[in-house]
Every structure is written in structure tokens, then in C-alpha cells.
Specification:
Mean pLDDT: 85
Number of helices: 15
Number of domains: 3
Low-confidence stretches: 243-251, 351-359
Helix content: 40-55%
Structural class: alpha/beta
CATH class of the largest domain: Alpha Beta
CATH topology of the largest domain: Glycerol-3-phosphate (1)-acyltransferase
Oligomer: single chain
Radius of gyration: 28 Å
Distance between the termini: 68 Å
Shape: elongated
Number of strands: 20
Largest sheet: 7 strands, mixed
Amino acid sequence: MKLLGSLLYLIIQSLVTPLFAVLMVLSAFIDRHTLPKLLAKYWCTFMLWCGVFLRRVRFSVSGLEHLPSTPCVILSKHQSEWETLFLPAVLPPHVMVLKQELLKIPFFGWGLKLLEPIAIDRSQKKAALEQVIRQGIARLEQGLYVVIFPEGTRVKVGYKGRYAQSGAQLATKAQVPIIPVAHNAGVYWPKGLFKQPGIITVRFGEPITTDNKTAAQVIAEVETWIESNMEQITGHPAQDLRKTPSQALTKKKPRELTINIDEKIIPYRIVRRKNRKTIGLIMDHHGLSVAIPQWVSLQQVEEALRQQHQWITHKYQAWQSQPKPIAPSWNEGSSIPWLGNSKTIVFHEGQQLSLFADQDTFIRINNTEGDVKNTVIKAYREAILPILKEDIEYFCDQLKIHPIPTFTISNAQTRWGSCSEKGQLRFNWRLMKASRDEIRYVVAHEIAHLFEFNHGPKFWQLVERIYPQYRSAKERLKKNDSLYRQF
């Protein structure tokens, strides 16, 4: 019976879908904005009930009364194709954010296009985010709800993905609430031919307001509500499936090569990264580095370098003209950078590390363990904490961000600071070598990302608003980059 029901469902789906697609195309000549959407709703409802009778997958819904009478953003868990039938069947007029590849499917894609979805290219993250916000605001103003799957793709049962900020940014900019949706459709409607008879539980949450909140705060509330309800529905917490930062495929040293550009021999390093999709060029304190996907050949790398020959020549000449700082010898009397000035290493007996007032020109270290470098780094990491905390609180107070976000200290090789889509702040301990104005610039930069997750004009206007001196600090940090990164 299970096989027969599934086969009947697929046969009906393959016959009905083209029929509805053709009817939607024809109806668009009469009323493009209403009739195709109405037919799509009928198709989803029909297939949903076919699933009930043929695959014995029923559903129980609670919280629909929480839907506001005016348009809002709906952020839903995404585990299967079932919810893509269910949500259009029960929601008021709306649009979905989806991958643009779906529009290319014969018949299905034709009808889908008539629904005027927000179809994004997921490989172009910045452009996709801007598109969701721009088109999303337009759809909301037209009186349509906007449905987004914040994890971006279907996530296996028992797991959770990374919650992207796009839906939260749209809601905060449009000043509309968010309705979170949790369900366990993946348990009973997994990928493949066979489905598991049972009852899918769907929960609509109460509106999550966006007034006086950052997108990071809003998406954190959404994730907390959805995942806590998923735990209640399934009986166990989800495992974290979110991706870690791209890592090199091998622990070997980057490959050292040279290329002749404009009659100059320019050395460069190749670093293969597992999750990278494009070729990236970086000119840092080490020189020219080329980050590439696993499948890129050396010939393709050289072609990319020659296409960017003007940028490479300009950056390489600037890099060559910079003084190359010499790392400390880690002996007594060695000088290390500290808050834009320097301190001298002095050995002494007693405590392993003696922290000091800013006016003190010495860093006193117990050398009995013979690990001077790591002891100094520990001093940097401890001393930067209260400075960062003070600056974060200052800028958050200016922007009325409450509660004050937490932060961690990183050992990143190329970034001074970072702000994740969830609003998680990280700052490099090497900032302790920089001056106070350089540190304030980095903090202001990352705090601004809580509102503008890009580097567009609005972002820099916000940075200037909270730290007007950022330009000079930014230039100074750029000039001193190699000095601060020498160890």
C-alpha cells in the first residue's frame, strides 16, 4: 500500500502540475496579479490533501491566529518539500524567497515565475542580500507577506543550520514583525519516493517585534524560538550543522611560485581552500597570496593574475616600499609594539607576568619557563579585553543597542575584527599593538555591521556618524599592518 500510494501521488503530481501551469499562464492574460496566485494556492492545497489520502501524512497546526492582519516577514524551518506546499496553502497573499534555479524547471518554473517570487542567486551573497531587502520592502508595501527559509536550504532532521540575517534585516528596515514557524515535516516527508505515515506538527509563533533592535538581535530571537519549539516537537535538541570557516585542504605550507608581470618577477603563494568558489587575490604583509578552489589549475591562476596585472603591480610596488619590520628576538631588552608605542622586555623573578600601568615602558616577565613569546601574547590578550569592552559599550550606547553584545578574542591572520550574521563579534588580540584611535575604528566598523551587513554607502555613513575620525585611523591601521602582524 505504501508503494502504491506513493506511485499514485507521483502520477497525479506529474499530470496535474503541467495542467495548472498552463492554466496559470492563460489566466495571466486576464488578471496577472490575482488569478495565477489563486490557482497556485489551489494546486498546493490539492497536492497537500493528496499527501493526506495517498501517503497518509496528516498535519496538526497551531498558532495561525498569531498572523497579523498587515503584511509581515515569515521565517520558517525548512526540512522538506512539504512545507513549500503547506505554507502557500494556508497563508494570506505572499511571496517566497527562493533560488532562481527553480524558475528553469519546465511547467513548474513557468507557473512559479508568475507568482513574482524573490528569486536570488545564492552564489552572490551580497547581491542576494540587497535584492531580498529591496524587493522584499516593495512586496510588503504591495500588501504581500514575505516568506523566507533563514537556513537557506533544507536541513536534515535532528540538525540546525546557520540562520542568515536577510529576513531579519528586511523586517528591521521595513519595521514589520516576524512570525517564526517550526515543524517536523522532515520526519514524515523525507526526500525520496517513500514517506512515513504520521502527523506533522506545525507551530506558528507570536510576532517578534523589530522596534529598536538590530538584525542580529532579531535573528537570535527567531533562532531561539524555532529551535526550542523544534526540541519540544521532536523531543531532543538539534545538532549544529553550520559551516566552519574555509580551511586549507592540506596542512602543508602554501605553494610558493613566481610570475612575470609587466617585466617584473612577482612572487606569490597559492592556498587551496575547501569551500571557496572563486579565485581571490590578497596583498598582505606576506606579499601576494592567491586563494583558490580545489578544482582550479595553475594555468587558470596565471590567467587570473595577468587579468589583474594593473592592480597587482600597483599593490606589489606599495608592498615593496613598506619597511619590513623585524620580529623581536625575545631577549631581555627587546622592544615590542604596545598601544601605538612600544615596551621593553625585562626579566624578573616572581610572578610569571606583571601587568602594568600605561605609562610604564617595561613589560616584566618571569623567564624561568623559557617561553617569552607566548607570555607576551598572553599579556596582549588580557590587556585588550577591557579596552574593547569600553569601546563596544561606548558605540552601542550611541546607537542605543541593548543588551551590549558579547565578544571574543581571535587569532585571525588577516582580519582585525569580524561580525557574523548573528551579531557575534570577534577582535584580533594583535590590536593591542595599535593605537587607541585605530582600535576604536575597528570596533566602530564591526558595531556598524550589526545594522549594515555590507560595505555600502549607508555602512560608511554609519561608521562616520559614530566615529567621525575613522578615515585617519583606517589609513594609519593600513600603514602599520605589517608591523602589527609580524608575530
